[in-house]
Amino acid sequence: MMTLRRIATALVLASAFAHNAASAAVIGVVAPKSGPYALLGTQVLEGARAAATAGGDRLVEVDEACETGTGAALADQLAAAKVEIAIGFLCVETLSEALPVLKNASIPAISISVRSKILMEDAMRGGWSFFRMAPVEGDEAETLSEIILSDWKAHPVAVIEDGTIYGRELASAVRQRLEGGGITPVFTDTFRPGQEQQIALVRRLARAGATHVMIGGDRNDIAIIARDAAAENIPLTILGGDTLRAADRPVPLREGVLAAALPDYAALPEAAQAVAALAARNITPEGYMLPSYAAVELARHAIASAAAENKPLTEILVEASFPTVIGAIDFDDGHELAANPLQLQEWRNGAFTPVRLSTE
After folding, report:
1. CATH of domain 4-135+266-327
2. pLDDT score at 173
3. Alpha helix segments (H runs only) across 181-311
4. Cα torsion for 156, 162, 165, 168, to the nearest 10°?
5. For residues 45 and 87, what is the distance between their CA atoms, to the nearest angstrom?
6. Of 120, 236, 337, 345, which is least surrounded by CB within 10 A?
């Protein structure tokens, strides 16, 4: 028997073909075109344009200033252009102010970046039509804890962090989950980030008997810790978060470092056609390009299905499952991704590759 979601998916796909034959979807794309986030904004716009070209959609591009006091005007631009749905939204400052205005205009907003849990809570209380195609705060700690509880129970575990808000909160959340699962770390510590070496730290880990360590910190600090552990002949299995998806600067990441991170979407079979289309334009699909591409695909299907079934877009977004270049996307009743998108990966041959948990 087909599940309700599979039935909904079939309806969405059938409706999309019919809708595209009749008219183009009008989709707003909100992204920075200047300022410190312009590079990320370019990724969003390039991905959206490629998807619109492939699907015959009409885009309305709106510059996102990422400054307090600009969100309402941005939403007014979308409403004046009569967009049916808006995607992108890299900044909380913009989104929090835009959502009440978008609600009045009946325009759902889909962020591919903002992770604030408080913003979603506000949106649900206010009845704002906001959906998130990104991990939410807490997903990272959940995935890291699941990895440790599944695969590291037989090992002495350490949890360390770099003293930043990110590192401190992540380590605290992981420790709480581990203790609830019966694991007490043999070593916890706060290290000083941005150092050229961390030999003293890895020696303290060794004296504590730790063989497996979860690190709340950035890629370069984790790379230095891994390098110094190897130089001291101290065997450490190292696990970090989504911050490991960054460039080497300058210390290269050692083989075997683990991460709870978003997958390399460009390597997915579903993305092959989109990747080829971007490559034909000499564009490397990086950062937000494929999530933005997927958001336009999702928007197109949702608009088509809403028209075919005479239902509000918000209702369709909750009910349906949407096939995209980054895999099927399902939202739960709280407008979050139904499945945590972060997964265990291992650094091998210059890239992160998925690793299965022992419980899978």
Report:
1. 3.40.50.2300
2. 97
3. 199-207, 219-231, 272-280, 289-309
4. 20
5. 10
6. 337
Domain positions in the chain are 4-135+266-327, 139-261+342-354
pTM of the model: 0.88
Spatial separation of the C-alpha atoms in residues 283 and 263, rounded to whole Å: 19
CA distance 235 to 205: 10
Low-confidence stretches of the chain (pLDDT < 50) are 1-2, 5-6, 8-10, 12, 15-22
Residue 6's pLDDT is what? 46
What b/e sequence results for 115-124 when a residue is b if at least 16 CB atoms lie within 10 Å of its CB, and e otherwise?
A: bbeebbeebe
Which pLDDT score is estimated for 28?
A: 98
Yes or no: say if 149 and 181 are a contact pair by the CB < 8 Å rule: yes
CA–CA distances in Å: residue 20 to residues 13, 205, 295: 11, 59, 16
- Out of 3.40.50.2300, 3.20.20.140, 3.30.2310.20, 3.40.50.300, which CATH number does the structure's domain 139-261+342-354 have? 3.40.50.2300
